[in-house]
């Protein structure tokens, strides 16, 4: 459960409210369908821990937009692929990887909530190769913090691009774990 007390002391600015978030997810799904009309050979992989909430929403909406079309969907934990795994005081607790299919020769769409430095995506690319060699990898993110990149990684699908300073954080709240749906800028 998220402790909201520290957040109340910080300045919060809403980036996307519940309605805007739903519209953004719908738009992202339509963009995916525009680039993958029949979703053949397309797989969706959500990144643990927070990217899976977005990927769950994307997956469910794609099923609604393309009923009867199979879309392989998996969840990827990158804990042991991180470049800071055993460094610093922060403890990285692994979650569960659930990919019950090969990605060999597939069109993979990686899904994460916030693209910041690019290091999470680099780790995901390394981890993903354990499941095969995809034909192509695309990146779908809800929020792109474009001026914070440390690696040359850019998203193919973006919900919203924001400019923020390094001391600010972006937090995506989802109904399931957080009892609200909203994207906020903290700091």
From TrEMBL:
Q: Which reaction does it catalyse?
A: UMP + diphosphate = 5-phospho-alpha-D-ribose 1-diphosphate + uracil
Would you indicate the residue range of the signal peptide?
none
Motif window: PRPP-binding: 108-120
Q: Which InterPro entries match?
A: PRTase-like, PRTase_dom, PyrR, PyrR_bifunctional
Entry's EC annotation: 2.4.2.9
Keywords for this entry? Glycosyltransferase, Transcription, Transcription regulation, Transferase
The molecular function terms in GO held by this entry are:
glycosyltransferase activity
Give the Phosphoribosyltransferase domain ranges: 13-170
Top-level class of the enzyme under EC nomenclature: transferase
Q: Name one Pfam family in it.
A: Pribosyltran
Q: Which PANTHER family match?
A: BIFUNCTIONAL PROTEIN PYRR
This molecule's function is given as: Also displays a weak uracil phosphoribosyltransferase activity which is not physiologically significant. Regulates the transcription of the pyrimidine nucleotide (pyr) operon in response to exogenous pyrimidines.
* UniProt similarity note: Belongs to the purine/pyrimidine phosphoribosyltransferase family. PyrR subfamily.
Please give the name of this protein.
Answer: Bifunctional protein PyrR
Write the gene name. pyrR
């Amino acid at each position: 459960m998220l402790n909201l007390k520290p957040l109340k002391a910080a300045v919060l600015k809403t980036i996307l409210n519940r309605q805007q978030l739903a519209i953004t997810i719908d738009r992202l799904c339509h963009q995916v369908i525009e680039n993958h009309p029949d979703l053949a050979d397309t797989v969706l992989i959500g990144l643990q821990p927070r990217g899976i909430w977005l990927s769950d929403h994307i997956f469910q909406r794609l099923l609604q937009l393309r009923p009867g079309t199979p879309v392989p969907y998996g969840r990827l934990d990158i804990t042991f692929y991180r470049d800071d795994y055993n460094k610093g005081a922060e403890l990285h607790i692994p979650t569960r990887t659930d990919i019950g299919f090969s990605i060999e020769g597939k069109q993979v769409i990686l899904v994460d909530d916030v693209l910041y430095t690019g290091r999470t995506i680099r780790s995901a690319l390394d981890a993903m190769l354990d499941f095969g060699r995809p034909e192509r990898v695309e990146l779908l993110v809800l929020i792109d913090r474009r001026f914070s990149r440390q690696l040359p990684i850019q998203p193919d699908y973006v919900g919203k691009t924001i400019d923020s300073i390094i001391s600010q954080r972006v937090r995506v709240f989802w109904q399931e774990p957080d009892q609200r749906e909203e994207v906020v800028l903290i700091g």
